[in-house]
Backbone:
């Protein structure tokens, strides 16, 4: 997917450069500054993201906003009507995504639900930062929340047995999770104008401990390293 994304971005820049050059040579007279041209800075990245990224919600909302702004700029629809309906529609899309996100990966969601039945330690970073180092401890799952703040969970020196779960919520904030080698990481995520990055080294085997990460990102991000 990364390769496809690079190709699509390359095509976009090639097209703009070619048109610009042809106009400069008086071969064509294509107006690149048409009404609402600036909305392409929203529409193009979101369209590419819909094709190349696993999470579609943020890109879908961005594309919707870009298309609506384009129609307003061209006078095709009343701007006052858009102002009244755009925010409610975005909230509806976000709400439906949160409600139905478990249907995307039923197997992982089912296992996460089972693991969540046991008591989990909860950590918060609200308008602040927090570093949690669980070295030389047995990790038995956790819920980590960064709200307008940053949180770091370091498990590199922790003991991991069987299957454990981490519920990570990054709302206008960021979370970093460091996992030890020899551990498998499975991710279920709902990013809305945010993202989840899993850079943990993949480990396979029947007896390999597994950490399930259930991530929710709203204008925030979760990085697994």
Residues:
């Amino acid at each position: 997917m990364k390769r496809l994304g690079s190709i699509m971005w390359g095509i976009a820049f090639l097209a703009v450069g070619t048109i610009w050059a042809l106009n400069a040579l008086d071969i064509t007279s294509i107006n690149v500054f048409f009404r609402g041209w600036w909305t392409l800075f929203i529409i193009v990245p979101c369209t590419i993201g819909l094709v190349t990224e696993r999470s579609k919600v943020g890109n879908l909302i961005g594309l919707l906003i870009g298309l609506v702004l384009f129609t307003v700029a061209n006078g095709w629809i009343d701007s006052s009507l858009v102002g009244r309906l755009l925010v409610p529609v975005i909230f509806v899309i976000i709400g439906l995504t949160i409600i139905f996100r478990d249907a995307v990966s039923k197997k992982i969601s089912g296992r996460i639900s089972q693991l969540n039945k046991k008591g989990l330690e909860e950590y918060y970073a609200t308008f602040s930062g927090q570093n949690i180092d669980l070295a030389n401890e047995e990790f038995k799952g956790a819920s980590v929340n960064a709200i307008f703040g940053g949180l770091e969970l370091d498990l590199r020196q922790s003991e991991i047995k069987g299957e454990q779960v981490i519920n990570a919520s990054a709302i206008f904030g960021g979370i970093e999770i460091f996992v030890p080698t020899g551990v498998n990481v499975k991710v279920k995520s709902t990013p809305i104008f945010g993202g989840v990055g899993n850079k943990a080294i993949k480990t396979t085997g029947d007896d390999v401990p597994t950490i399930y990460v259930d991530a929710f990102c709203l204008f925030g991000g979760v990085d697994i390293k």
About this structure: Residues 143 and 167 are 5 Å apart (CA to CA). The mean pLDDT is 82. The longest helix spans residues 2-24.
